[in-house]
Records
---
Amino acid sequence: MRLRHRADWRTLVWMCVLMPTLVAIQYAYPETLPYLSWFSFYFAASSTTVAHNHQHCPTFHGKALNRFFADWISIFYGYPTFVWVPTHNLNHHKLVNKAGDATITWRFTNSHNFFIAVTYPAVSAYYQSEPIGEFIRKAKEGNRDLYWRIIRQYVVVFGTQAAMLGLAIALHGRSEGLFIWAMTLGLPAVFAMWMVMIFNYEQHVHTDPWSVRNHSRNFVGTVFNFLFFNNGLHTAHHEQAGLHWSKLPALHAKLEHEIDPALNQKSVLWYWF
């Protein structure tokens, strides 16, 4: 089990130690939910960044292990991680918020307010379904190995979620079991998918899609980028999509003088408020 980049030890600690341990503790001791479920929501949100990073720059040297890890991430992410390929790698990075980008922020309006922001994930998800569907159809017609990997990922995600719901009910009864599953896995996964689309929205809304450097908004705070594996350094990521997340700060430092200072926000929370 060889990592391609040493920094991914933290990825493994997050995904393979802390997240499953949190679930196990809350399943065994439901009284800890008020204290630990908040962390479940955070780790689910962080898994979206891990999924994103893994699709751009695989974590391991071995192909089989990378496929297994993608399936594993999907369980906490709440959706098959292969969808990053057609919607993000092959679409968003090609068009970067221009017409045709399935995640475009100005589809119906270029207004930027609370209502537009909170409804954007639902609108974006609807339009992302088209490239996802096309990707699956092409895989079914011309790449059966990829097609069955896609099917397996759907089975792993929803099968595991269903099994964990069943386990919670078996351990604690219907009502309490449903609540435990919802607070440790179900709702965190929904929150994660909502948040990752919000991040995409805020990283591109009211930026210049045709600019070489000002097509993205960066959140450069140290805490945010530690918690989300440098996901805030978005200009650098678009500059070299396959660059490992641990190397983004160095690239951002090289590009920073070319970026409009207004697009380098120190705090994502301050920016939102």
Note: The beta strands are 218-219, 264-265.
---
Amino acid sequence: MIDRAVPSLGAAFAAARPRLDTPWEDETLRRAYAGLPATDLSRHVLERYPEALAVLPVNGLGWNDLGDPRRLLATRERTRTALVSA
């Protein structure tokens, strides 16, 4: 959906994909985020393709607005820690 709605956003993350889980991941993602235009995921992506969305019940999870790279990275770290502990 992101690739179709905001091709530049999809391209930025596709370029970063090969460096995920490598020592260069953090710097690559910092550069990717720094070069992105402001994008409202709800308005620019989700609203454009409502037929592609689904809602599922999920228990045991909290909510975090991931609109800021620091919150995203903190959530990623908490998730990794939880998975390792499980």
Note: The chain is about 55% helix and 0% strand.
---
Amino acid sequence: MPKPSGAVKWWLLCGVVMIYVQIMLGGITRLTGSGLSITEWQIITGTIPPLNERSWNNEFEKYRETPQYHKLNKGMTLAEFKRIYFWEYLHRLWARLMGFVFAIPFAVFLLRKQLPKRLILQLVVVIFLSALAASFGWIMVKSGLVERPWVDAYKLTMHLLIALLTFSYLLHVTVRQWVADEYYTVSPLLKRFAAVLLAVITVQLSLGGMMSGMKAGFLYPTFPDMNGRFIPDVLLSPSSWTMDAFRHYDADPFAASLVHFLHRMVGYSFLLLVVIFYCKSKKVKTRHPLPAAAGALAGITLIQVVLGIITVLHFKGGLPIMWGVLHQAVGILVLADLVVVFALIRKPYV
């Protein structure tokens, strides 16, 4: 397959990095409780932040009508509001910047006929996924402006998954443009194994999103046990397994306990699977980059498990924002490495 020009490849890589930064900004926004500070979705006029005291007071007045203000932040000062407003504004501003960085070069490359037809179709998919992520982001925000003082955990998780899908898809496309044909590994077995790993990490990232949305870390800030138990007592009670327990997770500890327990178990299982995958990948020819990428995957996954443990333990002293951000940052790097590994493997007929 013919490769695009160097300018196109660097542009694609820039897009991958910008999406990574955007997901991290979303994580910081969520952990600092900033996501509901801007109560309107103004694509054009929202680009300009409040520039004077009157504008700031108008924004603050809108926020003071939200459930989050009345239930969690009653008495917040304007200076405190400005701090949470900053992260949500930066999150939205970065999204707009990504649009410009993508759209303008895309139009130029199209006019110059520098994009292969298949790549054009793939980039259309990226545009669709990006629009879907933005739209679901607003749906998520609206869920926290009605009754709950925070966004719905399930909608938050869906927003995160769409963003990660956009990131992963563009990264996969980018790797395929950068890597020369002779550097791919042909192995149906490893390809299937990598697909299984992608499925498992998707489940794990979903559980991580719900962990954050349900604030499940506060329930069991202990390791290796969960408040003295391997399986929390609430999960062993048949009467706890009801649909209402999942719907009303902010009042019933069952759903958050289940998510927390599964997040730990899937994390351990994923680490074991990654180590097995790495051992199998070492058997391929040394000139291929796959063994190195698989080794990096094993190392980053181990670091991620350790960070997860540290993050859980720090919930004893309140919400560990720094550790939570680090845990998410490395988690996305695990996903990125796995996407690269998957892209480096081809079936015989490809």
Note: Residues 278 and 294 are 5 Å apart (CA to CA).
---
Amino acid sequence: MRESDLVGAELTLLGRLPDASNTALLTDLRAADGRRRYGLYKPIRGERPLWDFPDGFLAHREVAAYLISEAGGWRVVPPTALRDGPLGVGSVQLWVTATPGEDGTPQADPRNLRPVPSEVDVIVTTSRHLPAGYLPVLTGQQSAGSRVVIAHADTPELASVAVFDAVLNNSDRKASHLLRDAGNRLWGVDHGVSLHVQDKLRTVLWGWRGQPLPAADVQRLQILRAALGSQTEPGSDQSGLVAALAELLTRAEVAALQRRVEHLLSTGVFPEPPHEWPAVPWPPL
């Protein structure tokens, strides 16, 4: 089901996600051709005001993140669209599930949906070394003396998510926002607190800090830079992406996005954790 299908699909509410900080509703989506999928509907009227994100709406940022992911070629955000629903306008995103053989197609009982494996682990060890394939993020110590390490997988696809988060200025990349579907494809969800003008990057993916960006992501950044173009004056022609983002974000936020892309391309490395604000969201998992 594509973004365009989400807008026209018949939407039926199935239940609320109890752990969500804002209203998030599991839905049944039936496309015009009869295809059915689960979706996640986040109505604007269910958003709680945030003092550090006073402009715009979280639903708009969810959709903007999807457009940026598609334009740059990351394709890490599930199809997401802005549309009307039973509780008014909001974002609707295809549901990611790891249920074997289903790939998001509704089952008889939606409670059969099960959590997917996390890309981030808490590792308890007495060794100074992590298992192969992991990069450390945070280190602590138990009362018994064992080390406790929050670490993430060292994989190219996860590194690409880290680059994408730097582009978005994602302030809430928790482990639970990284999901794999039945085909083992990695997805990133929950981008409502992204795309701020001020630097607010908070993530559990700091393992590559200071390292050169992967060549594939440099190419994605170049593609996104071309799609964004340069900041335009009011009333002048805008690219398709900039025009779409202008419906969702402020001009200052679009300009800040362009600056972040330019900065990443000019430095060519993963950003370092900030000192002025918390670098890791809480809880991290």
Note: The first strand starts at residue 10 and ends at 16.
